[in-house]
Structure formats: structure tokens, C-alpha cells
Design goal:
The chain has about 625 residues and is mostly helical. It has 30 helices and no strands. Helix 13 crosses helix 14. It is globular.
């Protein structure tokens, strides 16, 4: 009954956040839903295989978005509500997993159910979870956690069977869990590869004294060690692109990232136990980078703190296995996203699954201390303190959810709390534009120009303003071109703004922003050495602009250059469409043949788009027969 009440409470606490808008990466990952018109398997397949977030594409997560295509782009509530339902389901799995862990580990405590209920309550209602639930695209994180929890729980049941003498059935269940659950978790989000790490942590800490079945070491080598070895092998093979050139677009290098993450991990732990509302936003691009051990000095202290924490977890592994479990579960959960990969430095959603370790240990040790108190007054104080903390966490979560449900207020708060965050300022200006408050948005961009005179993005944003307010005129063209040409490092915001300007032009806006100006901007970026890795996309943008102007042969020429750099079936289909609109039957026939036979195209793409290719081929045959 209490668990049901907890789920209802959690639903009500997160409900205000369901009414916010799509933000940030939502648009890039969901915009292709507009091509699902007839809910056909071919359309679903094309979207599911179009993933941008990683090399694997995260098709399981995209499949969950695809079935809600009817909600894009006007009804984010549909997507957010599903996120909340997944979060509640994960909360039930946390309760179940906690019970199973405590049962198998033989930790002696009068009320294991109480520990599990408190742990799942804290996990469900913790303020750090708000951004994961309310940010649509973080369903990827949620689904990866969902399959991770299910896999680990199933593994524990198989482990229990092996203890009770049903060795073959136990090993079969453990194997099935990894064989099915691991791919599903990885194809939701790559952090699912950490399942073997989590199981290894459980075995090394909570289950260290529990008898292992015969052949377990061989089983563990195949199902736990091998996936990690393959991952390390992948990193080794792609070391140059991941750990060297991968940092070209960042304002930090590999060493600086590792040093900074030492501080960030301790910040995460601080926020787990002391979640300050002012630190619970989405944008952390103003986080201070550690350039060396002493700059800032907290880098050294953080590194020493992590070393002490790990050392203590190793030393007390036998006597305090739950403490060791908490430390290694938390750190293990951050191995992929908080170490060497050239990702953004700081995101709260990375704690979605790692959060379980610290709060389980905190719940257990608090209740253990409470049970050993002989003084009734001390017990009352302890219980009152715990209740006050849970209530405060719940109120903070409700407040943050409410903020997420009011997008303009949310953007204003984030901009005010993070004045040095360019992204916070950009998001505030973007929401002002959506509210048709272009004058206020212009003031934000002018302030950004004053503070960051060498940054091209506020100039591009000023150009974008002219697409929404015809009374404005973009006058800073020479300055903008100079900044685009001479920018010292690649910036994703710059490229995304160029894409947005082209989209606005295609939509019939930006009448005062001539196509020739957009082409000059793209040319300036092409001359910038730091944007050479994006030549394919820049050629395509040129092609789209030429297509807007009706110069199909120039459009096809630019698309061809893009295709030569990066062969892609969607690019070829765009070329096919341009040729069809221009009435060039000969080119349509050429592109159809190429789409079906070009060996440079991935076979999986050809399979996904085959219905479209066949449709174009049928139209071509009808035209030829008529002639």
C-alpha cells in the first residue's frame, strides 16, 4: 500500500513539469518524426535508423518516440508523460532490486522492506531526477536504466537459483539476462554497456562471501569481462578519433577533462545529499575547467578525496560491504560519461542510475544507527530529521518540476542564476523569440556581444531575429563573416544556427536575409580550419539554399560534393527529389539506380528506405510509359 501511495505522490510531484516545451536536443532528435505520415513500417524504420546521438543511433529509444509521432511538434506533454511513467516503473524496479540485493547479501536488519521503501522514495523523488524526467530526449537515459535494472534483477534471481542447487537453471537465467538485456540497454543509450560493471560491483562487495556456482568464473569471463574487453578494444582502435581529434570542438583537452571530472564527481555527491535549487538547471557550460592540479586548487583536493574514498571502499569491503557497494556503484556508473570521452563536462541526468548506490547506503546506515539508539528522544529527533529531509527533497523536486512546466520562467531563472552561461542566455533569448518578444531577445544578444566580442553566435542570432521581426535589419555582415572565418575552435552552436537560418529561409521567413548572405556565411565557415570536419554538411547547406532559389543544377552539384565526402542514402534521396521537381527524368533514373546499387551506401540504410526508392522507381516508370 505504501508503495502505491509513493507512486501516486511521485506522479503528482512531477506532473507540473509535463507542460513545458521541447528544448535543446529534443528538436535535433525528434524533428524527423514529421516524415511519419501514414504510420507505416517503412516510415517507422526510417526514423528508428536515423539516430544522431551516437554511432549506434539508439534505435530502441527512437522506436519509443516513433510510436508517439502524432505528438510532434505541438504536444510535448505526450512525450513527457511517457517519461514520467517510465520513471515510476524504474522506481518500482529500484524497490525490487534493493530487496533482492539485501536478501542475497544476507545483511542483517529487522526491516529490509523499510530500507527498500526509503531507498525507492529517495530515488523517485530526488531533485536530481527532475531534468531526466522532464527533458524529453533523456528518455534514452531512462530506458537504458530500465533495461539495466531488469537485467540485474534477473541476474540476481539466477544467482539465487545457483545458490540453492539449481546451478544449470541459474546459469541459464543469468546468461539470458545478459544476452537479452545488455543489447536492449546499449541500443537505448550506450551507458547500458556498464551492466557488467554493476554486476561486478555487486559480486565484489555485497555478494563477496556468497558461494558462487561451478563454472561461474568462466561464465563471468564470457558474459561480464568480454563485453568490457570489446569496449576497450573499440576505444583502442578508434583512439585517434575519440581521444585526440574528438576534442577539436571542445574548449578543454583530455587531461583537463579528467581533472575537471574529479571535481564534478564530488559535486554530484554533494548535490545528492544537499540538492540546492540554484544548481539544478540544465546548462553548465560555465563550469570552471581545471587546467592543472592547482588551478583551481579544489582540483587537487577533489582528486585526493576520490582516492581516499576509493581506498576506504577497498579496505572496508568485507566489514562494510554496503559502503563499498555505494562507492563503486556510483563511480562505476560514471565510467563512460565522466571520464575520457570528449563529451560535455556536466549533466545531472548522468546520475539517474548511479544515484542508487549512495542513497541505498545512506538509508541503511541511518536506519541502523536509529535502531541502536537507546534514548527515545534521540530516536524521535532522528526520525523527525529524516522526515524533514524527505519532505524538503520532495518540495524542491516539486518546485523544479513547476519551473520545467513554465518554459519562459524557466529560461529567465536559468539565465539569472547562470549569467556566465552562454547557453542559458541563448535559451532565454530563444524563449523570448517564441513569445514574440524580439526586442527583449535583441537586448540579450547585444549584451552577449558586449561580453564576448570574438564570438560569432550572437551575430548569427541577431540575423535569426530578422526572420521573426521584419522591422529589424541585419547590418553586421562584414563583422559576422570575419568572426566565422577566424573563430579559433569549432562551436556546435554556430553550426546549428547556420542550419536554423537555412530552415527559416526554406519556410519562407527571413525575407530581408538574402540567400547570397547565407552563402557567404557558409563560405566563411568553410574557410575556417576548425570546420573542415563538417564540409559535407556545409556543402549540403549550400545545396539547400540553391534549391530555395530554384537553381537545381547548383543544388545538385553541392549535394554531390556532400555525398562524395559522406555517402548517405538520405542525401541521395534529396538529390533525387530535387531532380524530380526540376523535371529531369534522366537524373531521377540515374539516382534511383544509384540508390539501389551504390556499394558505398550502408545496407541497413538501403533496407530502411527501400519503399521510397521503389516508389520513385514506380513513378519514373509511369512517366516513361506516358512518354
Amino acid at each position: 500500500m505504501l508503495m502505491y501511495a509513493l507512486l501516486v505522490l511521485s506522479y503528482l510531484i512531477y506532473w507540473p513539469g509535463l507542460w513545458g516545451l521541447f528544448i535543446l536536443d529534443d528538436h535535433a532528435n525528434l524533428e524527423s518524426l514529421e516524415y511519419i505520415q501514414h504510420a507505416s513500417l517503412a516510415e517507422f524504420g526510417q526514423y528508428i535508423l536515423s539516430g544522431l546521438s551516437s554511432r549506434l543511433g539508439r534505435p530502441v529509444s527512437l522506436a519509443s518516440f516513433a510510436v508517439q509521432f502524432y505528438g510532434w511538434p505541438h504536444t510535448p506533454y505526450i512525450f513527457k508523460h511517457t517519461n514520467l511513467m517510465i520513471h515510476l516503473l524504474n522506481g518500482v524496479l529500484v524497490f525490487w532490486l534493493t530487496l533482492k540485493l539485501l536478501d542475497l547479501s544476507r545483511i542483517r536488519f529487522p526491516s529490509v522492506l523499510t530500507i527498500a521503501l526509503i531507498t525507492s522514495s529517495l530515488w523517485l523523488l530526488h531533485p536530481l531526477q527532475v531534468s531526466t524526467v522532464s527533458y524529453v530526449i533523456q528518455r534514452m537515459t531512462q530506458l537504458s536504466a530500465l533495461f539495466s535494472f531488469i537485467t540485474i534483477i534477473t541476474y540476481l534471481y539466477g544467482r539465487q537459483w545457483s545458490i540453492t542447487g539449481r546451478t544449470k537453471q541459474g546459469l541459464a537465467m543469468m546468461s539470458g539476462a545478459i544476452f537479452i538485456g545488455l543489447p536492449l540497454a546499449i541500443l537505448s543509450k550506450e551507458s547500458g554497456i556498464l551492466i557488467p560493471i554493476f554486476i561486478g560491483v555487486i559480486e565484489w562487495t555485497l555478494l563477496a562471501d556468497i558461494e558462487r556456482p561451478r563454472w561461474w568464473r568462466i561464465w563471468a569471463l564470457i558474459f561480464l569481462a568480454l563485453p568490457i574487453i570489446l569496449l576497450l578494444g573499440y576505444f583502442f582502435i578508434h583512439a585517434e578519433s575519440l581521444f585526440i581529434s574528438g576534442y577539436n570542438g571542445r574548449n578543454f583537452n583530455l587531461v583537463q577533462r579528467l581533472l575537471t571530472e574529479c571535481r564534478i564527481l564530488l559535486d554530484y555527491l554533494r548535490l545528492i545529499f544537499f540538492p540546492l535549487p540554484s544548481a539544478l538547471g540544465l546548462y553548465f557550460d560555465d563550469y570552471t575547467i581545471s587546467t592543472n592540479l592547482l588551478s583551481p586548487i579544489t582540483t587537487l583536493f577533489s582528486l585526493l578525496g576520490l582516492c581516499l574514498l576509493i581506498t576506504a571502499a577497498v579496505i572496508y569491503r568485507r566489514h562494510h560491504p554496503l559502503f563499498s557497494f555505494a562507492v563503486f556503484w556510483f563511480l562505476g556508473g560514471h565510467l563512460l560519461e565522466s571520464t575520457a570521452l570528449p563529451l560535455e563536462l556536466f549533466f545531472l541526468h548522468r546520475n539517474y542510475l548511479p544515484l542508487l548506490g549512495p542513497i541505498l547506503a545512506a538509508s541503511y546506515y541511518f536506519l541502523l544507527a536509529l535502531s541502536r539508539m537507546n534514548n527515545n528522544m534521540l530516536r524521535w529527533i532522528g526520525r523527525s530529521t529524516a522526515a524533514a529531509l524527505l519532505i524538503s527533497f520532495t518540495l524542491i523536486t516539486y518546485t523544479e518540476s513547476t519551473v520545467w512546466g513554465h518554459t519562459l520562467d524557466q529560461a529567465k531563472i536559468w539565465a539569472k542564476e547562470n549569467p556566465d552561461s552562454k547557453r542559458s542566455q541563448d535559451w532565454y533569448a530563444s524563449t523570448l523569440i517564441m513569445q514574440k518578444k524580439t526586442t527583449e531577445a535583441r537586448n540579450v544578444f547585444l549584451e552577449k556581444i558586449r561580453r564576448y566580442p570574438q564570438d560569432s553566435t550572437p551575430y548569427l542570432q541577431m540575423a535569426e531575429l530578422t526572420c521573426f521581426d521584419p522591422s529589424l535589419i541585419f547590418r553586421d555582415i562584414p563583422k559576422t563573416l570575419k568572426l566565422l572565418r577566424n573563430a579559433h575552435r569549432y562551436d556546435t552552436t554556430t553550426l546549428n544556427l547556420m542550419i536554423m537560418l537555412v530552415r527559416h529561409k526554406e519556410a519562407g521567413r527571413c525575407q530581408k536575409l538574402e540567400s547570397i548572405i547565407l552563402l557567404e556565411m557558409i563560405d566563411a565557415l568553410s574557410e575556417n580550419p576548425d570546420y573542415q570536419g563538417f564540409r559535407s554538411k556545409l556543402h549540403m547547406l549550400r545545396g539547400r539554399i540553391h534549391n530555395i532559389e530554384g537553381i537545381y543544377w547548383k543544388a545538385l552539384s553541392e549535394y554531390e560534393r556532400s555525398y562524395e565526402i559522406k555517402p548517405s542514402l538520405p542525401t541521395l534521396l534529396d538529390m533525387l527529389k530535387i531532380a524530380a521537381e526540376a523535371g529531369r527524368v534522366d537524373l531521377v533514373e540515374y539516382f534511383v539506380t544509384r540508390a539501389k546499387e551504390d556499394p558505398k551506401l550502408p545496407a541497413i540504410q538501403r533496407t530502411a528506405y527501400m519503399d521510397i526508392i521503389i516508389d520513385y522507381e514506380s513513378q519514373l516508370k509511369r512517366i516513361l510509359n506516358q512518354n
